[in-house]
Amino acid sequence: MASIQPAKLVRSASHVLPGRLLVTELFFAVPRNHARPGDGTLTLFGRTVRKNERPIVPPSPSDAAAKAQLPYLVYLEGGPGFGNREPQNHPLTRVALDRGYQVLYLDYRGTGLSTPINAPLVLAQGGEEDQARFLKLFRANSIVRDFEAVRLTLTEHFDADKKAWSIVGQSFGGFVALTYLSKFPGGLREVFMTGGLAPILRGPDEVYTATYKKVIERNEAYYRKYPADVAAVRRIAEYIVRAGGEQGIPLPSGGRLTVSLFLTLGLAFGAHGGLDDVHSLILRLTTDLDQTGQFTRASLAAFESHIPFEHHPIYALLHESIYHAKKTVAQPSNWSARRVGQNLPSSCYFTWLRDPDFLKSAPQEQPLFFAGEMVFPFHFDGSAGPELKRMEPVAARLASETEWEEDLYDEEQLRRNEVPVYAVSYIDDMYVDFEFARETARLVKGIKVRETNAWYHDAVRSKSEEVYATLFSLRDDEID
Length: 480
Hints:
By secondary structure, this protein is α/β, with parallel strands linked by helices. It has two domains: 8-201 and 406-476, Alpha/Beta hydrolase fold, catalytic domain (Rossmann fold); 204-399, no CATH class. 39% of the residues lie in helices and 15% in strands. The chain contains 20 helices and eleven strands. Helix 4 (128-135) crosses helix 16 (392-399) and helix 7 crosses helix 13. The chain is globular and about 75 Å long. Residues 73-233 form the AB hydrolase-1 domain.
């Protein structure tokens, strides 16, 4: 692998937002393949934000120079597949600015405004093998090279001791942070993680075996809180079959509401308020049936808003690959979430994953369990939307892949790590198994972890003030 070259700054523009926030929008060009710089470029988009201060006394040249070199705190978004919110809407912004940082929100390649992945772009690469080879370039190993290239550009004129930057990784962003620690520890001053201690020693089947257990717990919690929804969910499923048959009910954006797609709403169960959000949708759909005998367009659109894959296709295309830590894997994922779910005992109420006629045999009083953060082949059959349908062949190709570009993590580097690392790990995390997170924490030298059962996976958003206070207390408090 060639050394990282600075990213090319293509253009930038700054403006002041209410609250005295100076935001600069940046576009960079980076190699499409960092190992083959001559293969073309991708565009990265990011925003920096800092305080826009107007001091009474104009700063001296030395003060101005110091201000220009404020340390960077860089946010690594979850996913994979999501771009960043605008700085003024991000809870990290005020926390970081008050602590003397400037903040960078950089969209990962393929997300947000950074050459976003979409069906026309993928299909333009050629056949399925060419498409798969292209999509392999959007994993964490390429992401951290992009960030390192941008760091070299943004800190080019910084003093040597100020060039390293700090990173905050949420969920998948924590996975990326561990890759960054493995590949380019010299670029990092400190690392913060929330719900992102990746199961780096485990493969997809082990991950899904563990996470299904937590999904079952969350389904049980859902039906304890909303016992009437046992019948309501069953009623909705039976209506979908009756009104839409095998093809399902047409959705406003071109997809189809099938029973299988309906039962993926449990993706929300791992977040604060997730049970209530799903119940609100169930209430809306059953009210439609009571009042009109069918689902309204508004309710179908509300359902679509709970299924993120059509607008964030990397999430579906590469989700299982984030659990392939090695360059060469003994077994492909082969739709691991489906296989593991199909092998769960009947008492787990996931029979819908293996029996298309399960409604005929499942007792009326038996609750239908929702899946969690899992991607299934039916997401690409057109039900989740036409964009994913066009990429169905390459999705299948990736599911059969055993060769990737490189190892995502360097376990030996993590064992000798010298970069300060601070993590919040959630005991009741539906997405990142707590025991596997502990296993990873034991691997990273010097890490400080706060384990808690008071928050769920999305606490960095829903409980942001407390979470960031905890992270910085880990950094600021000394044990000895």
